[in-house]
Amino acid sequence: MSIEIEVGLENASKAPRVTEEQLSLEETPAPKGLANPKVRRLLFAGGVVVLVALVALLVYYHNRESTDDAQVDGHITPMASKIYGRVAQVLVDDNQPVKTGQVLVKIDQRDYQAALDQAKAQLALAESEARSAGVDVPRTRENVASGNSNADAQLLGAQADLARAQATYEQAQTADLAYAQANVEKSRANAELAQADLARYTPLMEKGEISKQQYDAAKANADASASALKADQEKLEQARRNVEVSKAQRDSSRAKVGQAQAGVAVALADEKQVGMKTADAQAKLAKVEQARAALDAAQLNLSYTEIVAPVDGVATHKQVETGQIVQAGQGLLVVVPLQDVWVTANFKETQLKKMRPGQKAEVKVDTYGKTFSGHVDSIAGATGSVLSLLPPENATGNFVKVVQRIPVKIVLDAIPSEKTVLRPGMNVDATVITN
Fold this sequence. Notes:
Blueprint: H1 2-14, H2 20-27, H3 37-61, E1 64-74, E2 77-80, E3 85-90, E4 96-98, E5 103-107, H4 110-207, H5 212-303, E6 306-308, E7 313-316, E8 325-326, E9 331-336, E10 341-348, E11 360-365, E12 370-379, E13 405-412, E14 427-433
Antiparallel strand pairs: 1-10, 1-14, 2-9, 3-5, 3-8, 4-7, 5-6, 7-9, 10-13, 11-12, 11-14, 12-13
Helix pairs in contact: 4-5
C-alpha cells in the first residue's frame, strides 16, 4: 500500500495543473444547430457534393434525348402458299430455328406434276408442228418458183407460136392467095386465047386451009390451057383453105397465149401461198413459245409445292397442319430473322432538334436489364399518327394540339447471339447522344 501511494504522489506532481478558466469552459455546454461549427462544416461539404452532382448530371444529360416509347423491330417474313392444294407434310415445329432454303411445308404435287407432263407434251407437239411448217415454207417457195418459171416459159412459147401463126396467116391471106388468084387469071387468059385459036382453026381445017397437024396443036393447046386453068383454080381454092387453116392456127395460138397468161396468173397467185406458209410457220413458232411459257409456269407451280425458308431465323406463328387444304395467298407461318433486328424509338418532335443520323445511341432492354450501344440510322419522314391506319383529319374542326412522336431507327452494334437474343416487340429505353 505504501508503494502505490508514493507512486501516485509522484505522478500527481508531474501532471499539468488545471486553471479556473479551463474548469469554467468544461462546465459550459456545446452550441447546437447552425451555431455549431462542425454542423456548418458538414452542411458546406454536403452542399458542395450536391452542387458537383448537379453539375455532373447537367453535363451528362444536356446532350442526351431519351424515351421509353421504343421497341425492338425486325424483318418479319410471313410465309404463304402461292398455289391451291392439300398439305402433304409440315416439316417444322413452332418456334423452331430454320436455315435459308430449308423446306418448311410440302403441298401434294401430283396434280402439278401431271400438269407439268402435259405441258411438256404440248411443247413437243408444238415444236414438231413448227419443224414441219418450217420445211413447208422452202418447199412451197421452190415449187412456186418452178411454177413461175414454167408458166413464163409456156407464155413465151405460146406468144412465139402466135407470132408465127399470125405471120403464116398474113402470108396466106395476102401473098399466097394473091399469087394463086394471079395464076388463075393468067391461066384463064391463056385458056380463053387457046379456045379462041381453036375456034378460028376449026373452020379453016374444014375448008382445008390448014393442016390437020395445026388443028391438033391448037386443040392440044386449048386443052392444056383449060387444064392449067383448072389446076390454078384448084390452087386458088387450096390457098383459100390455107388462109382458113392459118387463121385457125392463129386463133389456136392466141388461145394458148391466153392459157399461158392464165398459168402465169395462177403462178403469181401461188406466190401468196409462200406468205401463207410463212405466216403459218410463224404462228407455229408462236405456239412453241406459248407452250414453252406454259411449261415454265407448270414448273414454277410445281416448285411452289415446297415452301422454303427465305432467311435464317425462327419459324413461329405456325397455322398449318398436315392434310389441310390451303388456298393461294393463305398464310401458313412466319419466319423471324433474329440476327437482323433494330430499335424503333418514338421520340417527341421537341426532342429531334439536334438529332441526326450517325449519332451514338444507347438502348436498355427491359428483358435483360442491360444497355447496348448503337447509332441512329435514320429518322422517319412523317409522324406515327400520319402513318397510322386512320390518320387524323384536322380539317373537321376537332384539332387539339398534341406533341407528336416521330419514329427513329436505331441500329445496334453487333451482339453475340449466344449472350443475348433480341426479339421483335421487346420494350426498350432508347437514348441518343446529340453532341
